[in-house]
Amino acid sequence: MNHYMEAPKQIPVKAEVDVLVVGGGPAGFSAAISAARSGAKTMLIEQTGDVGGVATVGLMSHWTGNTKGGFFEEILDRSSDMPDDTESLGHNGSYRQIINPESLKTVMLQMLDEAGVILQLYTFASDAIVEEGILKGVITESKSGREAIYSKIVIDASGDGDVAAKAGAPFTKGREDDGKMQPMTLMFKVAGVDTSKAVFPGGFEENIEIPKGFIQNLGRENIPHPAGHVLLYRTTLPGVVTCNMTNCIGVDGTKAEDLTHAAFVCRSQIDSIIKFLRNYVPGYENCYVISSASMIGVRETRHFIGEYTLTKEDILEAKVFEDWVVTKAHFNFDVHNITGSGLDETGAQQHFTQEKGYTIPYGCFVPQKIDNLLLAGRNISGTHLAHSNYRVMPICVNMGQAAGIAAALCVKENVLPRNLSVTKIQEVLKTQGVQP
Fold this sequence. Notes:
alpha/beta
């Protein structure tokens, strides 16, 4: 590879804050508000033009997975179009968890403003400022140019852990034996659906019988590989359904060229999926695309090595850690097929038998080797299979809550994250409805 030697130059300091949160998805949004409410001068930077990440820009259908208590409940209270929490969506939770992405964007901006968070959109964290193993801040790129932001604590909620990687925190990628990662998806919505006749398979193992056969079998037979599964979700809008059916395998979300390839592959599949829905699925005979995500959905990239690594055994045992900071987390081993469509042979949805919620310990948020850095979201320390469970948005929201509180406490007490008393985090969390 050829190289260009960049000439040294002075970079203006954009801001000096107590807590800098990188990434405005569910985890980062939650972390920023929690840190600001705890009294820390907090800044949030996000590379897209909206906050919410996959929940908004990624056009996700619903808050998949569950937690009880904590900041996630507040988000539902503020944003849900369907406040009645009694009707079930099966293993996907309740109708209350259906996302209206346009209203959610506005609600999230309002909540950040109310908390006093300094927000800067269209801003990409391109490098880390590290001195002797201590993270001092980040370098950003935006329309304003190349700038530095100094911070006492940085929370990396970028999903891929871009700042943590630049800082030198150790990590692995994908599954342990071969490094392969779950496929990517571009979500889209269709209108013109007769919802009185429509079916809504919400999991790979929901093989509903329809007039022309079983829906998942028909999908595999008639939608070009590597797509082929049928996942259809209700929205709060009449005649509109969210489709989680595009699929791109063999890609790495930390590479721009792979993200570009995935966007092309997934968009190229939409026409075939529409034809399938019209020809085979009741209620969808007149459906048509009305919107698609402007951000590809990346499920898995870096797993950072923290003070503790969460395992599948911890989840199956519903382990309650002494240093818990996330509680009552519950989902399944949602491993999308690494070689094609549907559920991977290592995954478990209907056959996931652990009905109790599990906890996530503080050690998963504290990376080895680098100080003044906390992780939040799918980049925390966990194995490939454990990650397939905790990566979902409600659990990531409550991760952000814990990380934001921890960061503010570190600033207040002038201690490194790895030296912070977890009991103090737990005391604050308990006042906010989080119990083990």
